[in-house]
Write a structure and sequence with these properties.
Length: 559
């Protein structure tokens, strides 16, 4: 990781040096041109005025700007690099288009006078401003760990809030690069007030502008709640961690010995808690992948998702889909292969791939337009819905609905996972979150049943009954209350001798999509190879969809 960062740092440094040299050469040329032009035009008696020396104010401004640029000094910068991390400014340089960053509030300093010896460096530990990502506007704040450990003071928070307010006014995303030791203890309640001001803006911005958090160092205590409210949380492996209380507090209270990585490292949050959407090897990879993620998003809820040029023909058949579903209903297959066969160029930006693997979520494109994918994964727990998968998909559906992104759902679900662990853990209310999210969504909703759609899970997975716009089944679809074996055992429990015959009869009558098609619960039974063409046509048809929910302050989703 360190080697890659050093090479990348060299590239960034070379680019910056080249830019400085070019600017210097241009300035020298302009000066020479100006000098020769003046000499030819001036009369013999004309004597050009010398440029006045810098005033004390100008010298002070230059000194403060330089202090802001260097942050905590070269020794701390070197230490940051030795830990495999970029500095706050280097991260912005990688994230944004070259030369597009406009900094704001570089001269701000803290106001704490209660303790002596606190360094007062212009910028106060956070770099804020705006720039472009592939030509589109984004607001950014990047915490500087070299200045007071990136700790949040009253003015540090004020700078972040100022950027968030500006983003809301113009309708553009906010990207936070988090690398902070937490609240600045010396400022006491003013620091805590600063966090609360940020939290309030996170909530007011939610569903209005996209908010992205990139955890690139420590993020502990109350600081964790800001990323938790944002739409996406990305973490860098081995150098970032998030927790409310650290290992020392945990040991004092519970007597558990645990490391920072085990308690709140990137992989912990990617696999166990579900807090992190994606993890990356190093700062460079994380920032480049954030740029990719950004390209799928509209700038605000007032815009349609971006659409880019495409080469993949909508009429392209995918004959492999005709054979992807095994003949044996108990045999798993990988739903990601289905997704990649349908979307543009097989490109699928998966989110939360390590958490609740029995459901798949992410972004793709269909004829260049951004679409959201939600899919049961038969390769993991047979694609069953449980607590974690319901929560994972529900949050994703609501995020995409907030930002006008059409939702395509691929269904192969045998039902909800049974067991005391699930029941006592609240599968009823957690499963209801996914139902609520789909019911509430007003964006175009397209659903394809590839195999099983059993019981209440059939209803939940964007069925026609909860305002699905276009609902299809492949010929392999099985839409029923439950599987044939289970149903026959209940229906014919007094005739066990003829159970195999009853199972076969049930399959013929109910384990097909025909009954649902006859009642209009699915719009058509389609050939799998034609799925892409049909979905592309439907997305065109639904582009002008207008649907509004009843007026209300807000719904009461079962949290």
């Amino acid at each position: 990781m360190l080697a890659l960062n050093i090479r990348a740092l060299g590239a960034i440094g070379a680019r910056l040096s080249a830019r400085v040299c070019a600017q210097g050469a241009l300035a020298q040329t302009l000066r020479a041109s100006s000098s020769s032009s003046d000499a030819g035009a001036a009369s013999p008696k004309f004597k050009p005025a010398l440029k006045p020396a810098k005033t004390p104010a100008e010298l002070k401004i230059a000194s403060m700007r330089q202090a802001s640029l260097i942050g905590g000094g070269q020794k701390r910068i070197d230490k940051q690099h030795q830990g495999g991390k970029l500095t706050a400014r280097e991260r912005i340089e990688v994230l944004l288009d070259a030369g597009s960053f406009r900094e704001q509030d570089a001269f701000v300093t803290h106001r704490c006078t209660d303790f002596s010896g606190i360094e007062n460096i212009p910028g106060d530990g956070v770099v804020t401003g705006h720039g472009m990502i592939n030509g589109r506007l984004a607001f950014v704040f990047s915490q500087d760990f070299t200045v007071s450990g990136g700790s949040l003071s009253e003015t540090h928070a004020m700078k972040i809030c100022k950027i968030m307010d500006a983003a809301m006014k113009v309708g553009a995303p906010v990207i936070g690069l988090n690398d902070s030791g937490g609240a600045r203890i010396q400022e006491g309640v003013m620091s805590l007030a600063g966090y609360a001001e940020v939290f309030q803006r996170n909530v007011m911005s939610s569903g209005v502008i996209p908010q992205i958090s990139v955890i690139m160092g420590p993020c502990a205590g109350g600081a964790v709640y800001s990323p938790a409210i944002t739409d996406a949380v990305f973490m860098v492996r081995d150098s970032s961690y998030m927790f409310v209380t650290g290992p020392d507090v945990v040991k004092a209270v519970t007597h558990e010995d645990i490391t920072q990585a085990e308690l709140g490292g990137a992989m912990t949050h990617a696999k166990k808690s579900g807090v992190a959407h994606l993890t990356f090897e190093n700062d460079i990879e994380a920032l480049l992948r954030v740029r990719d993620f950004f390209d799928y998003l509209p700038l605000s809820n007032r815009e349609a998702p971006p659409r880019r040029e495409f080469q993949d023909d909508r009429t392209r058949d995918a004959p492999e889909l005709n054979y992807v579903v095994p003949a044996d209903a108990a045999t798993p297959y990988n739903m990601k292969n289905v997704i990649k066969s349908v979307v543009d160029d097989g490109e699928f930006y998966e989110m939360m791939p390590d958490f609740a693997k029995n459901i798949v979520i992410g972004f793709a494109r269909m004829e260049g337009r951004t679409v959201s994918i939600v899919a049961n994964q038969p390769d993991e727990l047979a694609g069953v819905l449980d607590i974690n998968s319901s929560v994972k998909a529900a949050r994703w559906v609501r995020f995409c609905d907030a930002f006008n992104i059409p939702i395509i759902t691929f269904v192969d679900v045998p039902g909800f996972l049974p067991g005391t662990h699930q029941e006592h853990g609240g599968i009823i209310k957690h499963g209801a979150k996914l139902l609520y999210a789909y019911c509430e969504a007003t964006v175009p909703k397209l659903t394809v049943i590839t195999r099983k759609a059993y019981g209440g899970a059939y209803d939940v997975m964007s069925s026609k009954h909860i305002r699905g716009d276009r609902n299809y089944s492949w010929p392999t679809g099985e839409i029923a209350v439950m599987g044939a074996d289970g149903a026959a055992k209940i229906l014919f429990r007094h005739d066990e001798k003829n159970l195999p015959k009853h199972v076969a009869d049930y399959k013929d009558r109910f384990a097909t999509p025909i009954a649902a098609a006859q009642r209009g619960f699915i719009d058509d039974i389609i050939e799998p190879a034609k799925t892409r063409r049909i979905l592309c046509e439907d997305l065109d048809l639904l582009e002008g969809k207008r649907l509004e929910n009843p007026p209300r302050k807000h719904g009461n989703i079962p949290l």
